[in-house]
Write a structure and sequence with these properties.
Helix content: over 70%
Oligomer: single chain
Number of strands: 0
Distance between the termini: 50 Å
Shape: elongated
Number of helices: 3
Largest sheet: none
Order of helices and strands: HHH
Radius of gyration: 17 Å
Structural class: mainly alpha
């Protein structure tokens, strides 16, 4: 029982770390898409992407990303 509890705790920590890095990667990916749209002079796409980033930030309570998107 002790081993299962320790294994469960370890697994939870690993998954939490992976989840937080996935959130960061998705913001990075969205911002790269914004940059590409700006280079291609696609303002509607920029607005759409920054709106997605804002809503994602709102859902995750990530104020820095919300402000940057705004």
């Amino acid at each position: 029982m002790y081993i299962l509890r320790r294994l469960g705790s370890w697994l939870l920590l690993v998954l939490a770390g992976v989840g937080s890095s996935l959130h960061a990667q998705s913001y990075d990916n969205l911002w790269k898409q914004v940059e590409q749209a700006e280079k291609k002079s696609l303002p509607e796409t920029v607005v759409k992407l920054t709106g997605q980033i804002y809503r994602k930030g709102l859902q995750e309570r990530n104020a820095p990303q919300m402000l940057k998107a705004y």
